[in-house]
Amino acid sequence: MRVLFYENDENPYFSLAFEESLWRNLKEGKVDNTLRFWRHKNVAIIGYFQLAEEELNFDVVRKYKIDVVRRFTGGGAVYQDMGCLIWTIAVKGPKDGGVNYLYNFLLRGFVNALKRFANVRVENINDVVVNDRKVSGTSATFQGEYYLLHGTLLINTNLELMGKILKVSKAKLSDKGVSEVKYRVTNLVDALGRKINTSEIIDAIIKEYSSLLGEKAYFDLPTTDEIKLAEELYEKKYSKPEWNLLRLPSRYFE
């Protein structure tokens, strides 16, 4: 299992293009199972099936100069800053594993890592909760025997700004017994009541995924093929407002 520390924190458009490139290169057998860690500065990322104007308050987005990017996996909208760690696990697994393999097996590596620090549980299949507050959300894709699961970890994110940017229905908040987004989620430092070094968390995630997959972890750099494809995806897809702001399908940009 290779481990990548690869981010382009000031260009989330390219960073998301690289994420898809990693996934495609894995499916082509060009790279090993991969655990990636990355971050962004002030970006709102929406899911593949979402429409940006329905999920984000654009008055706030413009005021704070927030980038808006659409990812190639499903799930809901998220806000990320440098206080949010993003992790990705992309692997070759069982041919018939499906969603069960993603959320009942693959997510376990991340959850087990957080259990080293706090009492953790999973809600709604893909939300990771500490003290009844969400600290991580995940999204995924799979094709045949190839799987990609990625998620956030709120360590010390600006929750006030997050609450202003994201539109969440009052009904959904009511179901959680809260009135605002910032009260439905929490930072890990607040849940633990102490500061925590991000390197501690990363080390735990690496160890748990190495154990879960039964593979020795090694540190690596992106391949030439990954960078080349990421550049193509950036130019043709992720840099385009038609991709980021509308619901146009991926095939439109091929």
β-strand number: 11
Number of domains: 1
Indicate the CATH class. Answer: Alpha Beta
Instruction: Please name the CATH architecture.
Output: 2-Layer Sandwich
Low-confidence stretches: none
The average pLDDT is 93
What is the H level of CATH, i.e. the homologous superfamily?
Bira Bifunctional Protein, Domain 2
Tell me the β content. 15-25%
Question: Could you name the CATH topology?
Answer: BirA Bifunctional Protein, domain 2
Find the structural class using helix and strand composition.
Answer: alpha/beta
- Taking all Cα atoms into account, the compactness measure Rg is 17 Å
Strand order of the largest sheet: 7-8-9-10-6-2-1-11
Write up what this structure looks like:
β9 and β10 (146-154) form a beta hairpin. It is built from eleven helices and eleven strands. The longest helix is centred in the middle third of the chain and has 17 residues, at 98-114. It has one domain: BirA Bifunctional Protein, domain 2 (2-Layer Sandwich). The mean pLDDT is 93. With 254 residues, the chain is α/β, with parallel strands linked by helices. The strands form two sheets. The protein has an eight-stranded mixed β-sheet with strand order 7-8-9-10-6-2-1-11, sandwiched between helices. The protein has a three-stranded mixed β-sheet with strand order 4-3-5. The chain has helices at residues 12-27, 52-55, 58-63, 98-114, 159-165, 170-175, 181-184, 188-192, 198-213, 224-238, 241-245; strands at 2-5, 34-38, 43-46, 67-70, 78-80, 84-92, 120-123, 127-130, 133-143, 146-154, 218-220.
